[in-house]
Amino acid sequence: MNKKKVLSIHKKPSAHWVGDGFPVRTIFSAFGDPASRFSPFLLLDYAGPKEFPPSNTPRGVDEHPHRGFETVTIVYQGELEHRDSGGNQGKIGPSDVQWMTAASGVVHEEKHAREFTQRGGTLEMIQLWVNLPAEFKMSAPRYQELLGRQIPLVRVADGGGTARVIAGEFQGQKGPARTFTPVNLWDVRLKAGHRLDVTLPSGYTTALFILRGKVRLSSSETAGEVDLVQFERDGEQLTMDAEEDSSILVLNGEPIDEPIASYGPFVMNTQEEIRQAVDDYRSGRMGRLH
Fold it and tell me: Does the pLDDT at position 239 exceed 60?
């Protein structure tokens, strides 16, 4: 079986603020790069870890729209509250995942949870944007709240690690997330000195995001904290050796071979569709928060 070769290792990017609640490092963005490079993934933001003092004023991002893709929010520390124009609302904390399909259009807000705001604490989370094929971009929005207890935990590496299967399949365990195209999304923990071998579909986009620790790859290259490793699409076998206790997000998905037109929170296939999205939001056709 052919090994996947490392295409590139992206080192620690600088941070910026999203709203007043999310100190974010954009690990990759398909906007500005050839869109096919990361497809079906569009963007990966890593927020934190950041200590927030107690406050009576909720921090976060106020009302804003999305159309044409999905947002996947994974919480490692802290708590978030969400509400949207479809009437969905919820709170997610450590080990929980929110998978929001904006599709034809959603207006929502994301804030630190009220109790978390009042007591203060550390926030650490990831938000991943996943593209939708043209045929699903104008489908009905949906909201999946995946609590930690619903996400299968697979023990790996002779007791030296675990993999939480958020989406796709790993060693016979299927993740709870419903996806429009094939996506594997695994939250892996490896103890120092242990190895994990995984088999992934050839032809798919594959990347590893190292939240913490240090990992040696089959090519003998190493990746450390807040590094992103992108692999060539050819090959099926991927090996990770943890040189330190490591936390790794594995992203793997079937590319969507379609043109991308984007503007802020809208990702469509043509500029005409972008103009329509802007008009629909401004006129209230995407709904409003009440």
Answer: yes
